[in-house]
Amino acid sequence: MSRGGFQGRVEKDQDTCYSFWCGASLRILHAHEFVNGMADTQWIFSAKSSMGGFAKVPGEHPDVLHSYLSYVALAMHSEENVQCLEGTLASVSAALNLTRRSLAWIYTQLWQNHPSGAPLP
């Protein structure tokens, strides 16, 4: 991540969705501290559209996929104390791409509704 942002492969340009894919992978591997969250946050915001949302790269039109994955990447960075947005982004489970609140709800439902009293794997 030399210029901010992530590349999917060597010799490819940065893409906002890779901020999630690479960032989440590193979080799952307990290596997210090696991510420069501020540089990635700046990269993501460079692709922000004036009409809302985020594009794949700066200067292109925003789309739902890149907007969603950009927000999730920003949420992961905000957990690392990077002030990236006004307001609060929900804490995210990188492995399941769910908010921790949703994950807790699912876990509670499985625990309460499973016949053996134990959650499903």
Tell me about this structure:
44% of the residues lie in helices and 3% in strands. It is mostly helical and 121 residues long. It is globular and about 55 Å long. Helix 2 (37-46) packs antiparallel against helix 3 (64-79). The protein is built from 4 helices and 2 strands. The N and C termini lie far apart (35 Å). The protein has a two-stranded antiparallel sheet with strand order 1-2. The chain has a domain at 16-89. Its EC number is 2.5.1.59. Its cofactor is Zn(2+).
Keywords:
121 residues; mainly alpha; two-stranded antiparallel ribbon; 4 helices; globular
Set out the fold topology:
Layout: H1 16-28, H2 37-46, H3 64-79, E1 92-93, E2 98-99, H4 100-113
Antiparallel strand pairs: 1-2
GO molecular function: CAAX-protein geranylgeranyltransferase activity; metal ion binding
Family: Belongs to the protein prenyltransferase subunit beta family.
Keywords: Metal-binding, Prenyltransferase, Repeat, Transferase, Zinc
